[in-house]
Automatic annotation (TrEMBL):
It is found in: Cytoplasm. Residues 5-145 form the Formylmethanofuran: tetrahydromethanopterin formyltransferase Ftr N-terminal domain. The keyword Cell inner membrane does not apply. Signal peptide: none annotated. Its main location: cytoplasm. This is Formylmethanofuran--tetrahydromethanopterin formyltransferase. Pathway: One-carbon metabolism; formaldehyde degradation; formate from formaldehyde (H(4)MPT route): step 4/5. It comes from the Bacteria. Its EC number is 2.3.1.101.
Length: 301
């Protein structure tokens, strides 16, 4: 049975998510601008594990009282399908986007879990001039660079995580769909331990598993494409739905993803049918993709 809240239909459906591995790194710099420059660069091209190797995003900004070196910083979450791939992505992204960025340093943001290299291998960029220092049992590397030193904690911890939480916002037009999606992402960003890895946190190219083309593992979610209404056999939209946007959520725990989805649903309901939101749904693959099932009606406020 469907339910309506503020005129918005909530589908009897669930978002299907899957296990991932994740880490948090803290990037600091001389000022907040350069910390964010490094964080944005390090989390670029990290929307989907389908082709990017990882999914990543800025979790939040950090004040000087929240960072190991007392400077402004940014917290970043990086997710991947395996610990091995995650370790590779961390090293590449920190090496190319943080080490290179003026005045930055990088530290582990998670203490418990399997340790993988953070500065352990990047130290060799110092060409023998690098030195290490152990503080309270933690090793840090100091690599000479042209603006001074790049400081990197030797390792960061990898923990179990959950990827693929999602919400589908079906609206009367593009303006309404964007307004709802932006409000949902803003509400989710106020919560810890989650990121929405797509541009602005929103996806317009929701996908289904498989394709008529054998070389593709995923293709357009035609059941939710307004231009295909009446053309596909199993359309999931109604004539009054002219735009669908998806928000994908990765989190450190099942509870974190559920909390973010709940916040997104609440944001959509607050805008309501009067704001152009017709329905809220979720993407799943009949329970075949992953063990984490987030039922929308259980998340209703």
């Amino acid at each position: 049975m469907t339910a309506q809240h503020n005129g918005v239909v909530i589908d009897v459906s669930f978002a299907e998510a899957f296990p991932m591995k994740a880490t948090r790194i803290l990037i600091t710099a001389h000022n907040a601008t350069w910390a964010m420059n490094a964080a944005v660069s390090a989390t670029g091209f990290a929307t989907s594990v389908i082709a990017c190797g990882c999914e990543a995003g800025v979790e939040r900004t950090l004040g000087p009282d929240e960072t190991p070196d007392g400077r402004p910083g940014v917290s970043v979450l990086i997710f991947s399908m395996s610990g091995k791939e995650l370790a590779k992505q961390i090293e590449r992204r920190v090496g190319q986007c943080v080490l290179t960025c003026p005045t930055t340093a990088v530290y582990a943001g998670i203490a418990e879990g399997e340790a993988v290299a953070l500065g352990r291998n990047l130290r060799f960029f110092g060409d023998g001039w690098q030195i290490s220092k152990v503080i309270d049992g933690v090793r840090y590397w100091r690599v000479p660079v042209m603006d001074g030193e790049f400081v990197a904690q030797e390792t960061t911890a990898v923990t179990k995580a959950v990827g693929g939480g999602n919400l589908l916002f079906m609206a009367t037009d593009v303006d309404a769909a964007l307004a709802v999606s932006e409000a949902a992402v803003a509400a989710m960003k106020r919560l810890p331990n989650v990121v929405m890895p797509f541009p602005g946190g929103v996806v317009r190219s929701g996908s289904k598993v498989g394709s008529k083309y054998a070389s593709l593992s995923a293709s357009t979610n035609d059941a939710y494409c307004p231009t295909l209404y009446g053309l596909v056999d199993k359309t999931q939209i109604t004539p009054d739905t002219r735009c669908v946007m998806e928000v994908v959520i990765d989190g450190l725990t099942e509870a974190d993803v559920a909390a973010a989805m709940k916040a997104g649903i609440q944001a959509g309901i607050s805008i309501g049918r009067a704001g152009g939101l017709v329905r809220i749904g979720a993407g799943n693959y009949g329970g075949k993709l992953g063990p984490f099932h987030f039922h929308l009606h259980k998340l209703l406020p």
